[in-house]
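As the next step, I needed to go through one protein, both as residues and as discrete backbone shape codes, included below for the reader:
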Amino acid sequence: MHLSRGVAALAGVASIALILAGCGQKSGQANKTIKTSTDSELTTVDPSKTTAVGTFNVLNNVDEGLVRLGKNSKVEPGIAKSWTVSKDGKTYTYNLRKGAKWSNGDPVTAKDFVYSWQRTLNPKTASQYGYLFSGIKNADKIQNKKAKVSSLGIKADGNYKLTVTLEQRIPYFNLLMGFPVFFPQDAKAVNKYGNDYGTSAKTQVYNGPFTLTGWTGTNNKWTLKKNTDYWDKKAVKLDDIKFSVQPDPSTSLNLYNQGKLDMSQLSATQAKQMGNKKDMISRKQSSNYYIAVNQKNKVFKNLKIRQAMSMIINRKTLANKVMGGGAIDNNSFVSEGLAVSPKNGTDFTKDTTAPASMTYNPTKAKQLFKEGLQEVGRSSLHFTLLNSDGSDQKQLSEYLQSALQKLPGLTVTLNNIPGRSILSRQADGQFTVTVANWFADFSDPITFLNILTSNNPSNISGWKNSEYDSLIKASNADDGSNANARWDDMVKAQNLALKDQAIIPLYQSGEKWMVNSKVKGIVYNTAGANYNFKEAYVK
């Protein structure tokens, strides 16, 4: 998903910033409250319509799907107590537990999953996350209005058995089931609240470890309260988690320094200023910020020009000194820490090979740029670099402008605009050169690699390569049942894309936190919904 994951394939909000703190308790009482600050407001908790990462983190704790994702995105039983997969990998049968309830007292049944998926895919709902259902029988046809919603490959066999039929093997299917878009919905609640469904805490029902309270739809405070009807309530140690919107990181850091917060996310500037404090931790994000050049433009069809633009950028300086905040240079499009090889446990980024153009070499870059301009019949080049208007992205734009203009004959003009506007411009191809980003929806390399296929709507550069398309198709189909072969397909695909400079990777983003050792048990995953508070506690 594009940053700020507030957009799923194409919308954007700022990445969530959680700041956790122990609530004041009377002497002798156990502390069972976490106070949390966030930099993003809630707009809706309708799982079919939200696109914001902050909301997905809320939904991941107030609702539950067929599975839950534990530490390192480990698939664990959720509403489904068990499941089986057919030999061809195309049929999943889930056995649902009978003790699960909605907060209005309704039982959670297989029909709630059928209803939810059909509602999300229904073109009338206009969900931006429908693309994640691709591969489920008839999902693409339904989105393209070529099949009825009722033909989707999901069937309730009674109340507690659910069968999902795929058009092709999807090796990461159960990882998808841990993403809130695939969670169930209570049709009774949707029909009761109509257009107001999910617009406030009171116009939604919940089946997860917590329930949402105190959110009116417009206020900047809300609480996740322990759900006493949750099937696994014994595992939930907290009474509640209190959220408040605090957009200024300086305020949060001051509260942390005063002992009023247990955990505070640092801005990039703060992280650089803090140095290496013992209570500072880094959290990687499964992301990639990159330059996309519009390859409909004759100039950018030239490989040497694309390679020169890549080679003139010092990524170590960019990640460590310009961006900070936990950013890393991994010479990859797929993020570091997302997935490991089924053969030997090697990280994907270590199995792939970065081409020479990913290494800073200003002398070679200038030579390639000069040759590229000659090949397209130009002596100079001027373009506008489009990027969002956040302070860190403005800083990035200025650095890129300075670096790129070291190429002889190149002039770069900057245009920083609001996040929602830039995503619309990128989707419509209304740019020459732009900074873009991708955040993983689930813990598998294919979540990045899919977007560079020829017909993917998120392939904003317009790069096309038939060999690449074949490798991705094989990894999703023919080689889907062979983990080693599938891994090799994906490694070859990234190597090919980087060698042909499909895009120009810049850095992988991260977060720096000041953390009090009292906060324990929070599960943080780099992909999808990041935070799982089910077993969190304050020591």
